[in-house]
Amino acid sequence: APNENLTIIDVRTGDYVDGHLPFHRHIPSTAFPNDVGRLVQELKGCKRVVFHCALSQERGPRAALMYLRHGGGGKVVTKKEDGTEVETGEVQEVVVLEGGFVGWQERYGKDGRLTVGW
User: Fold this and answer.
1) Which of 37, 115, 116, 117 is the most buried (most CB within 10 A)?
2) Which among 71, 69, 53, 49 has a CA at the least distance from the CA of 61?
3) What residues have CB less than 8 Å from 8, skipping those under 6 apart?
4) Which residue intervals define the domain Rhodanese in the entry (predicted)?
5) Strand locations in 55-112, DSSP E?
6) What pLDDT was estimated at residue 17?
7) What is the DSSP string of 3-58?
8) d(CA 52, CA 9)
9) Can you give the pLDDT at residue 1?
10) Interstrand relation of 75-79 and 85-91 (parallel, antiparallel or unpaired)
11) What is the dihedral of CA 36, 93, 16, 23, to 10 degrees?
12) What does the pLDDT look like over 36-87, one tens digit per residue?
C-alpha cells in the first residue's frame, strides 16, 4: 500500500541504474502512459505525489502533467473500516523534484539513508 503522506515516482528509463531514492516507485516514462490511470486510483489516498527523472526537465514534469490530466491531484480519500471511501477535504499535492535525481545526488548522494545504489 502506498504511504498516505508521500509517494515518490521515478520515471527514468535506462538511467535508473545510476541509483535511486529509497521508498520510491519506479515506473519508466515509456510505460507511464499505460499505467497512469491505475496509478491515479492507487494513490488517491496519498497527500503528496512527487515525480522525478534525471534532471526533472522533461520526463518528470511530463509524467506529473499526465497524472493531473488523468484525475490525480483531486481530493484525498480514505477508506473506512467497511471499505467505503470518504473524502478528507485535503487536495492531493502533485510536485516535481527540482533538479531531479542528479540534483538529489549532488546534495544527498553520500548519505546511504537518502540515496540507494549510487
Assistant:
1) 115
2) 53
3) 21, 23, 24, 25, 50, 52, 97
4) 2-113
5) 75-79, 85-91, 93-96
6) 67
7) -SSEEEEE--SGGGGG-B-SSEEE--TTTHHHHHHHHHHHTTT-SEEEEE-SSSSS
8) 6
9) 44
10) antiparallel
11) -110
12) 999 999 999 999 999 999 999 999 999 999 999 999 999 999 888 998 999 9
Locate the domains of the chain by residue range: 6-108
Distance CA 36, CA 57 (A): 19
Contact by Cβ (8 Å): 11, 27 = yes
Q: Within 13 Å, how many C-alpha atoms sit on residue 85's CB side?
A: 10
What amino acid positions are annotated as catalytic residues? 53
Amino acid in the structure at residue 26: H
Domain 6-108: give its CATH code. 3.40.250.10
pLDDT tens for each residue of 63-73: 999 999 999 99
Using an 8 Å Cβ cutoff, are 76 and 44 in contact? yes
